[in-house]
Design goal:
Largest sheet: 8 strands, antiparallel
Radius of gyration: 17 Å
Number of helices: 4
Distance between the termini: 62 Å
Strand content: 15-25%
Order of helices and strands: HEEEEEEEHEHH
Length: 168
């Protein structure tokens, strides 16, 4: 536990750092960013254990012209039991704690089977914070898993910029 001084300097510094990390608009988003934000069932989460919301880490896979994060992927501490199958487990990318100490207390998993849209206004309203970036050696592997996963329709992959549109 950190003991603050009489003037609350540490609390003030913590608030300042948090404010600097907050996503305030589309210019604050980049492909490969890992954001932290509070999410709920409206965001597509399956909540168990009586939770109404959860703080989640998401990876931005693309950004549209409006500044919406597209193809965002969730980082989970464990593989979702519905995805811990021989067909889906290969699409759960291991996120090693030693590579991401800013966000992970232990090894975790990135679910590459489910793309979703996070509108910029929602990212801002939920006070999402930039935490770090996906390591350069991890991003191409993650992108390849998303491309290879046949459970995501081709038109969705095109829409989210994961694969290019076919030229006619």
């Amino acid at each position: 536990m950190i003991i603050d001084d009489a003037k609350n300097s540490l609390a003030s510094l913590r608030t300042e750092i948090s404010e600097e990390a907050r996503v305030k608009g589309k210019d604050d988003l980049h492909v490969g960013d890992i954001l932290s934000l509070e999410m709920d069932e409206k965001d597509g989460l399956k909540l168990r254990g009586g939770y109404k919301t959860r703080d989640k880490f998401v990876v931005v896979m693309g950004i549209n012209s409006k500044g919406d994060a597209i193809g965002a992927l969730l980082i989970n501490s464990e593989i979702d039991y519905t995805k811990d199958t021989p067909e889906l487990k290969p699409f759960q990318y291991p996120m090693k704690q030693e590579k991401y100490p800013e966000i992970l207390d232990y090894d975790s998993w990135l679910d590459c089977t489910d793309l979703f849209l996070l509108k910029n206004r929602k990212i801002v309203a939920k006070k999402a914070e930039f935490k770090c970036r996906v390591q350069e050696d991890d991003f191409p592997k993650i992108l390849e898993l998303v491309k290879d996963y046949e459970g995501i329709a081709r038109h969705i992959k095109v829409k989210y910029g994961i694969i290019p549109k076919e030229k006619k």
